[in-house]
Amino acid sequence: MTQRVELAAVMDRLAVDGLITDYAVAVDDGDWTAYRQLFTADGRADYRSAGGIEGEAGNVASWLADTLRAFAMRQHLIVNRRVRFGVLDQDTGDTAQVQADYVNPMRLADGRAEAPAEAPDFICGGRYSFALLRTPEGWRVHEVVVQEKWRRLPG
User: Fold this and answer.
1) CA-CA distance, 146 to 47, in Å (whole number)?
2) What is the pLDDT of residues 112-135, one digit of tens each?
């Protein structure tokens, strides 16, 4: 492998890592415009294993916005990222598959203007499977599937 190819692979890994981080931050911050921009035009999300919906990313973003209002604090962490680059139209590196685990602590909203600094009362964890595409705008999510593995509820 030449140094140029190796540098390109490192740059792609960094860009993919940034995209996955941007995904987590958009969800945690409730930035649904940013969330939608992370996806390809035909991008999809599947949250059914966590009690959610599956569909076009914009529709899922609207569902998330409504559902996540119940939580005053969200701070999910995406870890153990495994990245595999693939081939699209004979060009290596135009696709990527990312499998990553997540832990998602959240605190229920209680109606107070400022949420107290208390421990989360809802925590879940599982695994994301991302299918990514290289686009003229950079790497984008073509599909994300959430596989919730566990959940701890309040009480």
Assistant:
1) 5
2) 555 556 777 889 999 999 999 999
